[in-house]
Amino acid sequence: MEKIEEIMEKAKWCLNCKAKPCSTSGCPMNTNIPEFISQIKEKNFEEAYKILLDNNIFSHVCSLVCPQEDQCEGKCVRSIKQTPTKIGELEKFINEWAIENKIEYKIAKSEKNGKKVAIVGSGPAGIECAIELLKNGYDVTIFEKEEKAGGILWYGIPDFRLPKSIVKKIIQEVEKLGAQIKTDVTLGKDVTITSLQKEFDSVFLALGATKSMVYLLSEEEIENIYESDVFLKAYNENRFLKNLGKVVVIGGGNVAMDAARVAVRMGAESTKILYRRDREHMPARKIELEEAIEDGVEFVPLTRVISANTKNGKMESVNCIQTEIVDGKAVDKPNTEFSVEANTVVFAIGLKPEKALLEKEGIQLNDWGMLEVDENGMTNLPNVFAGGDLTESKSTVCRALAAGKRAALGIIKKS
Fold first, then answer.
1. Which domains does the chain carry?
2. Burial of 310 (0-12, 13-18, 19+ CB in 10 A)
3. I need a surface site. Which of 28, 252, 265, 368 has the fewest CB within 10 A?
């Protein structure tokens, strides 16, 4: 944890703007950022902690994984001509100080109102929706297809970025509030939207985007080709994959960075990230790429993987072509083909909702395969709401939380 003197200096950098763009347009959860920083300036750390958690029980998570440079810090008035206030570092400090000093935060809860809500998915959007509803007197049952609750926080984000103890604490909090969590329950198999509608007053879908985007590397069946979610889940369940050899990760987002760093920890002989765009156009946070490189990952930009070369069903290398950025798009450069040694490939080029499952359930999707929702988070089905990666591509944890909160408020409004 940083020294208090250093933290006080960082807090003083905040101008305490009346317009608060960091909160109003920068933070998806609209955290009262100048107010919590004002409390730090006065050394009222416990009050700062209360302000953060009154608005967002996931505050510690957000301080660790949110892209502050694009969100709160990106909107800081200081950033126009100077460096922005280090909001993420201040938020992280307060949460770590609270843990160190055993500060307990108690969530206030209303009397029960007799209404029941089903939430499908226990990631950030699902848990946040549950918390808001429980605070307002609703009975909430969360259905999770995996063995443990937490969604991407548990199975997707590695522990070196987000300690599991933080996730466990949040799950315990939602259970303390009265949520019933049922694991190993899959939508479309164990329950349907129709069956949930019969039992509950409202349904919130927070399944996340679970279908990996991949493309064919060979007509042959090849060992050691993984989808990023499967690869990360294996690590998070402590099931280290063996004989990875030389690993190539295809993609340029934060998931690609996580997959590459996980490959290193699972014993890869070498790990390279091959990305068709350059560093300037990659979606991954700068710090995530820097930390991957520090871990020994090699970043190879302007490279598109075309196919794989195999021998007896085992991968030996991948064929690539150099690209260049033209009008913001990655375009192949003629006659620049080359190969890269590879025994394992991890696809990290994105995830999308399971279209067939959702359409079978009667949900309306847009042209991009996302669920259509109104300003309250409601789908085309009455009293069926949705949020998170189901409704927007490349959603961050904080944006998923905001979607969960919006849906909860929508459910309350419609009740």
1. 4-100 (1.10.1060.10), 116-209+353-414 (3.50.50.60), 212-347 (3.50.50.60)
2. middle
3. 368
SS3 14: coil
In this predicted structure, what is the pLDDT of residue 258? 98
Identify whether the C-beta of residue 15 lies closer than 8 Å to the C-beta of residue 75: no
Does residue 211 register a pLDDT over 90?
no
Segment 276-296 shows an average pLDDT of: 96
Position 367 pLDDT exceeds 90 = no
Cβ–Cβ < 8 Å for 362, 381: yes
Strands (E), 199-313: 202-205, 211-212, 225-227, 246-250, 270-274, 298-300, 303-311
Q: What is the 3-state secondary structure (H, E, C) of 58-91?
A: CHHHHHHHCCCCCCCHHHCHHHHCCCCCCHHHHH
pLDDT at residue 1, rounded to an integer: 67
Judge contact between 102 and 81, C-beta under 8 A: no
User: Mutual orientation of helices 124-135 and 397-414 as an angle, nearest 10°?
Assistant: 40
Is residue 357 a contact partner of residue 375, using CB atoms and an 8 Å limit?
no
Q: Which structure tokens are listed for 395?
A: 């959603």
Residues paired with residue 338 on neighbouring β-strands, in sequence order: 320
Strand-pairing partners, residue 175, are none
Contact 215, 250 (CB under 8 A): no
